[in-house]
Design brief:
about 170 residues; alpha/beta; 6 helices; 4 strands; about 10% strand; binds zinc ion
Amino acid sequence: MVTYPNAHIRAEAGDPRRFWNLVCETWSRIAEAGRAEIDAHWRTLLDGFDPQEWPRILLARDWEGRGPRDWGMCNEKGLSLHFFAPIIEEMPDDVAHLLIAHELGHVVEFARWRPGMPGSKADMEAAVWQITEGWGLPASALRRWEDLRRESLDKGDRNFVVRVHW
Ligand SMILES: [Zn+2]
């Protein structure tokens, strides 16, 4: 059974129908406890936000604060997720699921964060990797796809080691 997150799923670029399906398929692949944690976090955050607009999961070509190598981003303590339309278009469905799961993992990371906890970017990413690994949606598989793609784009350039961000 396909379930869907209690969030506004919109596409400002790319294929809205496919994006909606990708988000819902990803959501269905996340363990029930993980979905409950995300839902609960969103509910606690909604105070002061218009529920007609938030939480939101957007497919876009650009957004405020997007760096040139950002494929996905989680903002507003988890209320706002963005995905870069051209890369979602390139990805097979099961790889796109991993990217979407990663950003949803950031929502869980925000939910679990308490003042005084380590909060460096690297700490947060490591925690998110653990979370999505637990869902069976490992970031390592996404990294592999990214590596293969880079190799095919940059054959012969051994110095090209720039990582994308998600
Ligand atoms: Zn991340």
